[in-house]
Specification:
alpha/beta; Rossmann fold; four-stranded parallel sheet; 6 helices; about 10% strand; elongated
């Protein structure tokens, strides 16, 4: 298996700059011009994929989602989608597209959360994911602590 990072950023020089930066730091990287080229390279083997969100709007998205769907359930292939930074709400098509990239969507959520907190000048470190039951336990514990601290009985 090839350990190269595949980079797909179809506009401007983003892909070339990313590949150059990785090469400078001793990381093997290759630029792909289209989703079809990315899918071909994925079939040949890669260590990770770094894809600009706008690239996912292309019609040949199925070539990549097909490759992802054939990965074993335990696969931890790093497929990083770089959010485009638009201030507005994503279109339904964009959400649908990102949803097809599962389970790699968790990386996008982590990035959003870290960026959101950074804009508030707060540091955050995402150390992993837990299930729904664990989240509810944390919420209950925090509510009890808040009620104790404030003397409130509010639900």
């Amino acid at each position: 298996m090839n350990n190269s990072v595949l980079v797909l950023a179809p506009h401007g020089r983003d892909a070339a700059v990313a590949v150059e930066l990785m090469h400078r730091h001793g990381i093997a990287a290759k630029s792909c011009d289209t989703l079809q080229a990315l899918a071909h390279c994925l079939e040949q083997g890669a260590g990770a994929a770094l894809v600009a969100e706008e690239a996912l709007a292309a019609d040949e998205l199925a070539t990549v989602t097909d490759w992802l769907s054939r990965q074993p359930p335990w696969s931890d292939f790093p497929f990083v989608v770089l959010a485009n930074g638009h201030k507005g709400v994503r279109s339904a098509r964009a959400f649908e597209t990102l949803d097809q990239m599962r389970p790699h969507r968790l990386i996008e959520i982590e990035h959003f959360f870290q960026t959101y907190k950074a804009l508030e000048d707060k540091a955050v470190d995402v150390v992993g994911w837990r299930d729904r039951d664990r989240a509810l336990d944390v919420l209950r514990t925090d509510r009890v602590a808040w009620q104790r601290e404030t003397g409130s009985n509010a639900e």
